[in-house]
Amino acid sequence: MQAFVLDRYGKKSRLRLAHVDKPQPREDEVLVEVHAAGVNPLDAKIRSGEFKRILPYPLPLILGHDIAGEVVEVGSRVQKFKRGDAVYARLDDLHIGGFAQWVAVKEASLAHKPQGITMEEAASIPLVGLTAWQALVDKAALRPGQKVFIQAGAGGVGSFAIQLAKHLGATVATTASAANAAFVKGLGADTVIDYRAQKFEDVLHGYDVVLHSQPRQALGASLRVLRSGGQLISLSGPPDPDFGKAIAAPRLLTWVMRWLSAGIRAKAKERGVGYSFLFMQASSEQLREIAALIESGAVRPVVDRVFPFECTPEALAYVEAGHAKGKVVIKRP
Hints:
single chain; 333 residues; alpha/beta; six-stranded parallel beta sheet; 16 strands; globular; ADH-like_N; NADP-dependent oxidoreductase
């Protein structure tokens, strides 16, 4: 089959179109013909080697974390899917490979595609939708009337998280450029801060939750936005010891995580707030919940650009440049 392959880690490493073996699904897996695949900053970070200590992928590697497509084969133990089903998924860590013609997906990570949307729109959802869900529902337990600050509201995670937070009944603040202010307000943001003209910590106070996705320099400022007892949930780190336990990291790596996060955890404790790092996990059950929200109209996919499959390296470069409004998707012919 055709796939885009990463041969070596590095920021300047370019994906190579190659012919590789078609995957064979295991007894608990489903073989999916990929119609569309989401392109994420996580793909760029893995390519550059930022996560190779946490996620030790062997090379060569096929990137691509979220897909939409059609079931073509099911393993002997698969019960919820059959050939011809339209599905979508966030592929499991260490089992990614969406930038290809076919991919084998664990049944526990797969869900039926939301009705009423295209394959391209469906492929834009899994990673950002699950990230927002696990941050706001699982970790924050966000409730009606609470206030949440979602950074980078025009991005992939931000554009979904704003909609989810509004559905949960929260008041939402976000950062965006002046050019994107109307866009994020249209998603439901109540307060929009032009990050080029204002410091968010000078404007926002008494918030219950901050969803941090920016460089680590913004962590200290994010703490000052929170009320006592509030929660700072970071998508960009540093990883904390609880994350090390969750992934069963070796003792040395867990110690490194404890050391890297010691400063921000100490500052959070001083202010009486919580700090946690989120690295999203695949979940069929949560994708079904998200599909129901999409079908009800509570949230909608936000797709910035769709690239043809042969332009996958260009799509990754576009995402890495950081100017996408919503998600970027590649489409197979």
